[in-house]
Amino acid sequence: MTTQTVKFFRPVQKQEAEPRWSVDEIEALFKLPFSDLLYRAQQVHRQHFDPNAVQLSTLLSIKTGGCSEDCGYCPQSAFNDTGVESRAMLDVSAVVEAAQAAKDRGAGRFCMGAAWREPSGDDMASVVEMVKAVRGIGMETCATLGMLNDEQVLQLRDAGLDYYNHNLDTAPEFYGSIISTRDYQDRLDTIERVRRAGLHVCSGGIVGMGENLTQRAGLIAQLANLDPYPDSVPINNLVKVEGTPLAETEDIDPLDFVRTIAVARITMPTARVRLSAGRQQMSEAVQALCFLAGANSIFYGEQLLTTGNPDVERDRALLDKLGMYPFSENH
Ligand code: SAM
Ligand code: DTB
Ligand code: SF4
After folding, report:
1. Residue 64 near residue 305 (C-beta atoms within 8 A)
2. Is the CB of 65 under 6 A from ligand 1?
3. Is the dihedral of CA 328, 130, 60, 103 positive or negative?
4. Range in 15-19, 230-234, 300-304 the model is least confident about
5. In the chain, count of helices (H) and strands (E)?
6. pLDDT at site 328
7. What is the SS3 string spanning 2-53?
8. Mean pLDDT of the chain
């Protein structure tokens, strides 16, 4: 076996009846002295990845606002008066243009997001065309469209979708305080359908929503105990948007955010851990600590879905300063 295959080999999951990580074990990781935690995360990270390569995904909102779900964090929920205007779905040519621009700037993956509880039949027909077209320009594709049924998952797979993003967002015990229009099992069911169809699963969550440490550990336990755990794990720092119920939530200590990244890295060694929403509000030093803690992916481009993200020039300068470079299959 070559060094290359050893380095990127996904360990065989143990056949255990018990969950691989208890919430207590994960909470204990969170409570390690900061340096010990980062050291462990670095060791795991370096076993599986080039620590200086970062995967770049660009997001595009293909259908914005007016969502029928009541997610307390989300500027796009119809329940939240945030000033985000509902817009009709973009057409395929606008999506391809944005994807080409993202590719030209160095992004490897293009993620299309829609403010839906679930897509309709007509929605799916358009998304299928978008996925095919974005694949056609040689980018990896990701979509996040809400809940999917079996038929929809297969439609996306057959269109060539690489990843489906569906976040668990928080611990099961805290979920009902944030969202009332769906339940945790709905999320798990869609993730299971996506996984069974052979699509790559992207699933993570949001921290800084007022969850306690046990609940933060509970989110990581849910993700890490998925069998197999997700290929890609976005860790979002809540972007506080005026008009959402969570707008006044107390900020999470940035070092606790770094700890969350480290714990995700240790418990999901071969996943791409994405330092996701919230970077615009984060210092370069904290972002550098997140990379040190095992983050190896970011959203790249000045816009997330409806909120801002650092501009490309700023991110290029940061990566340069840290001696990091975009991940490509050739690295
Ligand atoms: N509607 C689909 C869904 O909820 O799965 C897809 C789009 S939704 C905007 C995708 C993800 O964005 C959510 O699961 C959540 O993790 C994240 N998100 C939304 N608003 C956020 C905010 N204010 N701060 C951080 N992350 C946010
Ligand atoms: C994910 O975990 N974060 C992204 C992406 N997946 C779809 C979305 C972040 C949204 C932040 C709020 C906004 O821009 O509307
Ligand atoms: Fe809708 Fe997704 Fe926002 Fe929830 S997070 S309100 S499902 S767009």
Report:
1. yes
2. no
3. positive
4. 15-19
5. 12, 10
6. 76
7. CHHHHHCCCCCCCCCCCCCCCHHHHHHHHCCCHHHHHHHHHHHHHHHCCCCE
8. 94
Q: Which ligand has an atom closest to residue 306 CA?
A: 2
Residue 258's φ and ψ, nearest 5 degrees, are -60, -40
User: Using a 6 Å cutoff on CB, does residue 144 contact ligand 1?
Assistant: yes
Q: Where are the alpha helices (DSSP H) in 199-295?
A: 213-224, 254-267, 284-292
| Nearest residue (CA) to ligand 2, atom 7 | 113
- SS3 assignment, position 125: helix
Residue 167 in contact with ligand 2 by CB distance below 6 A: yes
- pTM across the whole model: 0.94
Tokens of 148: 């999917």
Establish whether residue 115 lines the binding site of ligand 1, counting it when its CB lies within 6 angstroms of any ligand atom. yes
Nearest residue (by CA) to ligand 3, atom 4, is 71
pLDDT tens digit sequence for 154-203? 999 999 999 999 999 999 999 999 999 999 999 999 999 999 999 999 99
* Predicted confidence (pLDDT) at residue 329 exceeds the cutoff of 70: no
